[in-house]
Amino acid sequence: MRKKLVFILMALVLMVLVPSVAFAGISLNQIGVKTPGSDVTISGSTTLKEVNIKVVRPNNTNLYVDVVYPSGNGTFNKTFTIPPDAAAGTYTVVAGEASDVDTKTFTVQAGSSGSNSGGGGSTPTQTGNRDDNAINNALKQGGEANLSLLNRTDAMAAITPGIVKSLVDANKSLILENKGLQVTFAPRSLMTAELNKVLQDKNASLELGARVVSAEEKQQIFAKAPLGESTGLFEIGGKVVDLTAQIKYKENNITKTENIASFSEPVAVTIDMSDIELSQEDIKKLTGIRYEKDAAGNIKLVKLGGTYDAKTRTFTFYTDRFSFYGVLKASHLINIYLTVDKLNTTVNGLSKTIDVAPTLINNRTMVPIRFVSESMGAKVDWEDATGSATITLDGKELKLVLNRLASGLDTPPVLVNGRILVPIRYVSESLGANVMWFPATNGVQIVK
Length: 448
Hints:
By secondary structure, this protein is of the alpha+beta class. It is built from eight helices and 33 strands. Strands 9, 12, 13, 14, 15, 17, 18 and 21 form an eight-stranded antiparallel β-sheet that branches. A hairpin with a 4-residue loop joins β22 and β23.
């Protein structure tokens, strides 16, 4: 009985002496009082392999966003500088991954105003208002809406939904620029389902981020990416960029954040490659790449194609969603572009003419099966007796029957002027290609 009592007392002592956060997956250290222009070091310990860090302003917009990779003993730290015009108030640090997070707050006190009035001077303009004003001024002058993210610690712009509507009405693109990177949103790109839900909410904000990741982050991504002979994709020494888009709004006095799943029009991403020596053979094999992370943390490489500009030494590609991106060299690359109701097409930049144009049926883009499949290197076998076509590529086999639906196929193949037309997205993605739709031009791009 005495031994049992001693054990219980020891357990109680340990519970008192050891903080409860030590049993969590991450623990942040306290941060002292700061002033505008001073440095903030976010540090702590964790069992996580990577820690997403976000610092939120008093008005619930993001001040700083980054990723840090802990050392071997599980400790981490990241330092950033508070902008000189930062508002006074309580800032919140959120760090972790998924639901395994820790939070800490710190206070930013108003800096000296340079006078004896003691009033603290004027109220700093918030980022959202500043970006709204910049876009409004550009639209009034008839110019392009261009926002620079240089010297912003969070590498992020914040605009209201009403400004997105103004861009649509003026038919103007929005351009974000950061060091080594430019992102161009077509006029309707940002008019997404997520934004439409808060279009009339004057307090909602659209946050757009664009930054080049650190060398450490890049190596962490490459460590999980299947580069090399297995995929035919090879590193060339280029940048990896992190692009984000999210809607922030309040519901029942609770601030909510919703990521934009996809854009209404593909977004152009231009990456500076002036620091890389490339031969003409290298340039022919370049492709934009999306690094897609699955639930297990594995990375899938998605080819996006693209174009190299020899004059500016930049590479531009398009994407319909945001993630991590870069430029790699592909040992095998097929890039097909077709337009609805047009006979002219291109395959790897070379003009081709088809005898039956792509068409829209049941809101699906239907294309000639043999042309598209054989352009990707597939073999197509037609069985007249059964009215079926079998497509074979890289060990994958796809069988389609005229006027008959199949699993995942909501529009059946049809016969038009002696050619079989099939839904382009269903067929291409079944064969491992990426498909992107361009609503403004009724065009479709296939990259494999």
